[in-house]
């Protein structure tokens, strides 16, 4: 989506629960003694030990139709790209939604510009992808975000797609596994991930119009365009989905029941909520009935009062509205939003040296060495002189893509700067911007090696006209290569490009959009400090004529339709099926060392279980390095499937001469195909060919897996317990159920990812006392003695035992105590303002006497004691200037000064800074903690 903002006076952040305090007496006892926060009967679901569904039911029973509709409709009042306001009377927190898939976007500052998602896909490393997600979640949380709008997991159907850089590649298996890892990382920080874009969103041309009607078969939907979303649910426990701008077989995605209800919810078991892409809602009742829970940004007229009317007229049933509401509330509870005060604000810096270091490391790991002729790389100190050429190296660095995935940099290291810093004084580094190919060639001829940086810009909102670099850049490379035989090209592109000069250069690196650590990352690779280990997540065609969608009817479409007539032959599947040799195959990536594959072994497939494929990978070179072992499966001819399909991968790091065994589980799902004649998944019996190597075109090991009818079926099924949430230090007991249809078999349970302090018994009972706050993705597996197994994945949030819900402090004439501009930087003025349910109006009265908002303390400026001393927000420091005692009359007294928090001059003007003043008992000194 593109960021669409409503002009406002403030940026807002996440709201925590708004708690009604019984009798308006506040959280501290009269007389000034701090007391523990109390949860009133008005909101019994706050700090409750009841199961999440029970708590959701309690809230739902109290909600009016108008309140349910409010939760379903985006609102103004926030500088986040999406916002639903708090419903204070029910302690329902607000929700702040923010891009994006490559880091905190939409123009926010103080963040880390990360490498593009396609670069992470090139790592083929789920641990790195999870680290990437956790970094995004951490920075979103620092900005007060509730929901991160990412990751993007759409299939890269064509390299001309303007958003190819922010997706994961062309293969559904790779997209699914990497997407799930990203989701786990984001959600481990307590921020919800919103997976996008459901579904069949593969071009910008004519998007969000009927002319972008994707005519796609059920087989292609099930095998290519939906599996990554299934993995995001079943392996990533994604909290939410974003429906796309696409029209799918004549129906807009955001009112498509086949996609949202049938596939997502019924087939995949998704229990979270679905939000529209911004402006992608095109109806009221059809959208709600098809499964759209939230309309964003909410100003299109389809939800809000229109939804209320549809419910009142019976076009949308109350049961449907209840289901929509319940799905949103469930995720709020699952992430502990009701039970703890918010921290973070848009003004808060989120980046750090550690984050920037991680981003640079990930950029290097995702860079792909495509060619290394004559061992031109890595450079040595004996290189003597290096000519760095191209605007992309210094004056016009292409470190990020555009649109809603564009992220501000906190300080970009250019390639020229990185090379100069790494080369040291013993190597001469010269620079030419490449604007004149003749002078660039002269600079190259004077150096021992030349490095040319070229780029292509991609952005949401527009597709590329082709897959060639500009003629000026291609001519530049050719001129430099003619002048210097040791020419290396570094590509900064979002997807595949052609290389007419490939035969004339010694080396090529695809660095994608590497983020702000660009120069440091590429220098570490050029000089061999880091071994190149990236592998392509997309095929690089030799020419545009090779791409699967090579007709105008397929791309960008004609006559109001886009024909997906290539079916399941997307990406490498098409090249293999048509015996085409691309420029570089899917999965390709070189190293500065070499690797060998041996000793392939394939175990039998147990009914309802997984076969195991193992192979040995050996570093046969003289340097330490990394490779990606890849497993491909060829189904029996009767299945009618592509020649081979990815079904496993494993990144390995090895010292020279070292070997390791890689192991791939191969489940029945990995052997199945979608039978269009029955509209169901099926598995053929017979011989399956399994192949292992390090690209689609380099598979030195092949073996056979024989499958019989007796081995098929799913005898074991696990029923997950759903989302869990509770306080640290509070004992838990959760039973997970499993069913085994095999006579005489009783499955035994294991679990991964449980909160520390808990464990699972063989019978499926999870018990113990969680000790460590956090959000955990838990995998529970039931396995019987015959090898049949099934896994359920769910979220579990542990809230700190000391957590205190936040609530507004309402003062004179109904104005709220407020942080100016929702800023939480030190010395931000505290003021009175119209109550608006923003983070800057949510205050937690702590047991230590402090009153906190956005993670900082209400503070008397300079510890002053005189009447009229201003009150501000400041880092909590334990001084008397930050202690407040709740009085019986509702005032807040600062014992250090002996004075009370005071609405200056009985002001009714929003924006007036508050002060301390002699305690008078006046209404301008009463601050009632209550729902707005």
Automatic annotation (TrEMBL):
Give the source species. Answer: Actinacidiphila rubida
Q: Which family does it belong to?
A: Belongs to the glycosyl hydrolase 3 family.
> Which Gene3D superfamilies does its entry note?
2.80.10.50, Glycoside hydrolase family 3 C-terminal domain, Glycoside hydrolase, family 3, N-terminal domain, Immunoglobulins
| Signal sequence extent | 1-29
Q: Which SMART domains match?
A: Fn3_like, RICIN
**CDD domains hit by this protein:** beta-trefoil_Ricin_laminarinase (cd23451)
Q: GO CC terms for this protein?
A: membrane
Q: What Gene Ontology terms for biological process does this UniProt record contain? A: carbohydrate metabolic process
* MF (Gene Ontology): calcium ion binding; hydrolase activity, hydrolyzing O-glycosyl compounds
Instruction: Specify one Pfam family.
Output: Glyco_hydro_3
Domain of life of the organism encoding this protein: Bacteria
All residue ranges annotated as the Ricin B lectin domain in the record: 804-930
Question: Is the keyword Flavoprotein assigned to this protein?
Answer: no
Question: What range(s) does the Fibronectin type III-like domain occupy?
Answer: 627-696
Question: What's the protein called, per UniProt?
Answer: Beta-glucosidase
């Amino acid at each position: 989506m593109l960021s669409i903002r409503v002009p406002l006076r403030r940026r807002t952040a996440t709201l925590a629960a708004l708690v009604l305090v019984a009798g308006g007496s506040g959280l501290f006892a009269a007389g000034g003694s701090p007391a523990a926060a109390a949860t009133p009967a008005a909101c019994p679901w706050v700090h409750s030990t009841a199961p999440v569904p029970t708590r959701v039911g309690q809230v739902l029973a109290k909600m009016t139709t108008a309140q349910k509709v409010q939760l379903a409709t985006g609102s103004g009042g926030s500088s986040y790209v999406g916002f639903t306001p708090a419903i204070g009377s029910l302690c329902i927190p607000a929700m702040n939604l923010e891009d994006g898939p490559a880091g905190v976007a939409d123009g926010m500052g103080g963040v880390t510009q990360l490498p593009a998602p396609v670069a992470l896909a090139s790592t083929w490393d789920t641990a790195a992808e999870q680290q990437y997600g956790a970094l995004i979640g951490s920075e979103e949380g620092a900005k007060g975000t509730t929901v991160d709008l990412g990751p993007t997991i759409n299939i890269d159907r064509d390299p001309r797609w303007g958003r190819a850089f922010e997706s994961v590649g062309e293969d559904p298996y790779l997209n699914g596994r990497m997407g799930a890892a990203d989701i786990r990382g984001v959600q481990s920080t307590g921020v919800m991930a919103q997976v996008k874009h459901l579904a069949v969103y593969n071009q910008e041309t004519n998007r969000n119009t009927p002319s972008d009607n994707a005519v796609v078969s059920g087989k292609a939907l099930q095998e290519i365009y939906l599996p990554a979303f299934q993995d995001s649910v079943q392996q990533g426990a994604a909290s939410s989905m974003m429906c796309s701008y696409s029209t799918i077989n004549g129906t807009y995605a955001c009112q498509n029941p086949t996609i949202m209800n049938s596939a997502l919810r019924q087939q995949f078991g998704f229990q979270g909520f679905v939000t529209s892409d911004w402006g992608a809602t095109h109806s009221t009742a059809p959208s709600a009935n098809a499964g759209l829970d939230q309309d964003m940004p909410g100003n299109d007229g389809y939800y809000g009062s229109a939804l209320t009317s549809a419910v009142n007229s019976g076009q949308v049933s109350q049961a449907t509205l209840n289901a929509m509401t319940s799905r949103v509330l469930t995720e709020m509870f699952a992430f502990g939003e009701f039970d703890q005060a918010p921290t973070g604000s848009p003004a808060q810096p989120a980046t750090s040296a550690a984050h920037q270091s991680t981003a640079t490391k990930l950029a290097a790991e995702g860079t792909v060495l495509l060619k290394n002729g004559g061992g031109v790389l890595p450079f040595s100190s004996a290189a003597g002189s290096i000519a760095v050429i191209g605007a992309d190296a210094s004056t016009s660095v292409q470190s990020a893509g555009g649109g809603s995935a564009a992220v501000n940099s906190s300080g970009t290291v250019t390639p020229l700067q990185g090379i100069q810093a790494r080369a040291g004084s013993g190597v001469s580094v010269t620079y030419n911007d490449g604007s004149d190919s003749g002078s660039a060639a002269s600079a190259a001829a004077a150096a021992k090696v030349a490095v040319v940086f070229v780029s292509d810009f991609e952005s949401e909102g527009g597709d590329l006209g082709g897959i060639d670099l500009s003629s000026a850049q291609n001519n530049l490379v050719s001129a430099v290569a003619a002048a210097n035989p040791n020419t290396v090209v570094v590509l900064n592109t979002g997807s595949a490009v052609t290389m007419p000069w490939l035969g004339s250069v010694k080396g090529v690196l695809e660095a994608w959009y590497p983020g702000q650590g660009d120069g440091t990352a590429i220098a570490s690779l050029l000089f061999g400090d880091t071994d190149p280990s990236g592998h392509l997540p997309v095929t690089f065609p030799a020419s545009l004529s090779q791409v699967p969608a090579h007709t105008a009817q397929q791309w960008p479409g004609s006559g109001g339709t886009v024909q997906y007539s290539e079916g399941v032959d997307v990406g490498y599947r098409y090249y293999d099926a048509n015996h085409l040799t691309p420029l570089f195959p899917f999965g390709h990536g070189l190293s500065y060392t070499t690797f060998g594959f041996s000793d392939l072994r394939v175990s039998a497939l147990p009914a309802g279980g997984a076969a195991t494929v193992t192979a040995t990978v050996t570093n046969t070179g003289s340097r330490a390095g990394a490779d990606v072992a890849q497993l491909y499966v060829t189904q029996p001819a009767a299945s009618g499937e592509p020649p081979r399909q990815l079904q496993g991968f494993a990144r390995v790091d090895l010292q020279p001469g070292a070997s390791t065994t890689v192991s791939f589980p191969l489940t029945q799902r990995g052997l199945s195909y979608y039978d269009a004649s029955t509209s169901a998944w099926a598995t053929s019996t017979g011989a399956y060919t399994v192949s292992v190597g390090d690209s689609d075109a380099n598979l030195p090991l092949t073996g056979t897996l024989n499958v019989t009818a007796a081995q098929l079926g799913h005898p074991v099924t696990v029923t997950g317990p759903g989302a869990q949430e509770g306080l640290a230090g509070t004992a838990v007991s959760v039973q997970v159920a499993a069913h085994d249809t095999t006579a005489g078999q009783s499955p035994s349970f294991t679990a991964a990812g449980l909160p520390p302090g808990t464990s699972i018994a063989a019978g499926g009972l999870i018990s113990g006392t969680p000790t460590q706050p956090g959000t955990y993705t838990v995998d529970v597996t039931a396995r019987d003695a015959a090898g049949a197994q099934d896994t359920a994945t769910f979220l579990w949030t542990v809230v700190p035992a000391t957590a205190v819900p936040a609530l507004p402090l309402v003062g004179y004439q109904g104005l709220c105590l407020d942080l100016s501009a929702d800023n939480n930087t030190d010395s931000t003025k505290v003021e009175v303002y119209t109550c608006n349910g923003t983070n800057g109006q949510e205050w937690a009265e702590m047991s230590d006497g402090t009153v906190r908002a956005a993670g900082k303390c209400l503070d008397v400026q300079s510890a002053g004691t005189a009447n009229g001393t201003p009150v501000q927000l400041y880092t909590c420091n334990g001084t008397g200037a930050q202690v407040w005692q709740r009085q019986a009359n509702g005032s807040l007294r600062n014992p250090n000064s002996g004075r009370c928090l005071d609405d200056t001059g009985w002001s009714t003007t929003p924006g007036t800074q508050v002060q301390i003043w002699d305690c008078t008992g006046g209404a301008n000194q009463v601050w009632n903690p209550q729902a707005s």
